[in-house]
Amino acid sequence: MNAPEPVQEFYSIGEVCDLTGLKPHVLRYWESQFKFLNPAKNRSGNRVYQRREIELVLLVKHLLYVEKFTIDGARQKVDERRKNGELRDLSFGALHADVLASLEQSLQELHDLLHEESEG
């Protein structure tokens, strides 16, 4: 019987970019604009993100790219939800929306591929 793989606790900026589809300079800029995005740094001085911070990155991405908030508007929305204790629900909703969008894109690509093969 195989032991389950341990859950990764810390992620590099490159891993976060892969998970979120964002560029490193975007993450660094968002850190300057959203005080709650403040990853720790390891002994080498590299950013290390925890799962909670990745959820917040996905929330900011959702607010900016999907809901079309400005930086200030997204900051206000997060602050408002944090004060009301609703931040966790909001970030989970953004995570689910991101996963669904990714699945939808994958399904569309598969559909297109199958359609091309059936015509050829």
Write the layout of secondary structure elements.
Blueprint: E1 10-12, H1 13-20, H2 24-33, E2 40-41, E3 47-50, H3 51-66, H4 71-83, H5 87-119
Helix pairs in contact: 3-5
Description of the molecule:
The chain is mainly alpha-helical and 120 residues long. It has one domain: Multidrug-efflux Transporter Regulator, Chain: A, Domain 2 (Orthogonal Bundle), CATH 1.10.1660. It is 67% helix and 8% strand. It has a three-stranded antiparallel beta sheet. A hairpin with a 5-residue loop joins strand 2 and strand 3. Helix 3 packs across helix 5 (87-119).
**Do you know the CATH topology?**
Multidrug-efflux Transporter Regulator, Chain: A, Domain 2
Percentage of residues in DSSP E strands:
5-15%
Regarding CATH, which class? Mainly Alpha
Mean pLDDT: 81
Question: What is the CATH architecture annotation?
Answer: Orthogonal Bundle
| β-strand number | 3
Silhouette: extended
**Order of helix and strand elements from N to C terminus:** EHHEEHHH
Q: How much is the radius of gyration in Å?
A: 17 Å
First-last Cα distance: 46 Å
How many helical elements?
5
Indicate the structural class: mainly alpha
What strand order characterises the main sheet?
1-3-2
Helix content, binned percent: 55-70%
Main sheet record: 3 strands, antiparallel
Low-confidence stretches: none
Please, how many domains?
1
